[in-house]
Queue: 3 jobs
Job 1
Amino acid sequence: MLKKILLVSVLISGFIFLHYYNKHTILRYARMCEKIEVQQMAQKDINTYLKGENNTLSCRARIQKIAHDRLNMFYPSTTENIHTITTDAEENNFCLIDYIVPKAQALTK
């Protein structure tokens, strides 16, 4: 009889221990997931900021200003040197722009 009571008490205490251990593990993983979500949102914010900065740095006006200041090049006022290429397979638009000057004008410089 004593063995049965001891066995039942060990089983009950084992189940209680495993229950709380499992609950603690679940809480730990939930906290880790929340931390990862916060880090992901922070990285998205940083990525959005850097994309904006990249667009600002690679804009046409900035390239024109740098080329004019450092290379003494000028830009025609017409947009005949801008060509847009579209691909139907992936539905992407690419814009090929001759920013500096046409080849004939570059050769005469």
Job 2
Amino acid sequence: MKLRRILNTDIDVVEFPLDLSLPPSDILAAVADLARQSWGEVVPTRPLTSQARPGNPAGVGPA
């Protein structure tokens, strides 16, 4: 992740690279983790696919 300041403002943007070579479910899991982090929730470090399962391929929500 990289923090970038928008010129002439007090706004900071966090650059969060996504590995688009991963399967879609892993990309969605990374985006879900980022969304939880952006709302201030603590997200434990885990492999992207550790909670993925049928019916919830992105691993979003309770395990």
Job 3
Amino acid sequence: MKNSYIHIMKSSRLLWLFLVLLAAAQAQVGKLYGPRSQVDVLSQESVLPSTGDGNEAAGEIADNQKTVRSHFRENWPDIVGDGALVFDADGVFWEPKGGKLPGEQADHLARLLTTGVRIAVITSNAREVQFERLVDPVKTRLKELGQVDKLANLTLYTSKGALKTIFNKWGEEVSVDAYNAVNLFPEEHVEIIRSALEDILLNDLELKQVIEKVGEDEIRKRLDKHLSYLTKQTPFLPSRFRREEFRLNVYDGGSGKELIPSNALLDEDKKVASPLMDFRDRVQLTLRRIPEYRGDTAFRDIIIRKLREKVAPAILAKYSINATGEGAIDMQKASINKAAALSDYRAVNNLDPKHVHYFGDEFFTEGDADAPILTMKDVHVYAVCAEGKNGYQNADGMGRWAVRIGNDYKAVYDLLRFLQDILGEQGGLLRQL
């Protein structure tokens, strides 16, 4: 009887200790995965990232990684059931300036797809670019596994979410015309915008004054940095290198076909002047190779301001105009952003937002490509970026922030390796059953 009493007491103490540890673990997970998610609007003081030394920031990342991994392990059945993994591409799968999915990571994504995990990629790049960089490596690995039909679990949104591509059971791409048609430029708007830009580039006195102030030699140095491939003629080169019949080129980056004819003129170094206006898949109009660098936006500021003066407000109201990257201006339908794409993906697949996990690297300002995702309630948002760039502060002092799990894309690689461990554990449990 006495031995039974001692056994009961020991069991009670062990149960009490287990409950205490479980509550502590739940509290830690609850810091990131509470009922309103980490992307709710919080006070500036409560969400500003650490400004301490590197060791403090590294400790914060390590804590976040542990918590995120615990969450994935505990909620994996729900993530597979009615959730998804959603990724940006540049800066998340490879360097921000571009790259290609390594074989190991292609294998990780392929194996996730074979187990029924839904994966979406929402990227600012063109469709053909991301097919080469990401889709083709994953498709090749699925073929090697004999499960190319599982490519149907992948959805690709390109040009900041303007174009949607899905895949059939043979691994063939299927364009979602009903979604994509809404985001196309009307042809008449292209001509109006092209004509206005041509007039600004050739005739605007304020722009010419800035060009003269910068100087021909400096302009040439800047152009040399941008001329990695042929671009079309503008007044940024001396008059002897230009033709009077100049027309700004409009180029369809998807088909390789000129939509509006133009005359290009090689200079004496067999290079063509800048900038080039390209029309990506009829959803994104980009004026690129503007001779600016190191944060200098004088040319773009003038061009954007003059464009707003020349084109009717009723037309421009339909579009967003942004200075992007180094020496480029992008125009798209104002309704296009990554949050709109993710909302479509959730609705079509009937996903629970609490089981959707997004990975990005550009949250620093409201204009950054990934920042709109932070407005989505209950979606879990993770950043791989430099310290202090995982969110933004509004003018009213409020902020939105993602959970920072690393400094760069390598943190995503580590997580994908961890998910392979979860797949192995799930497979082991199934074999035991």
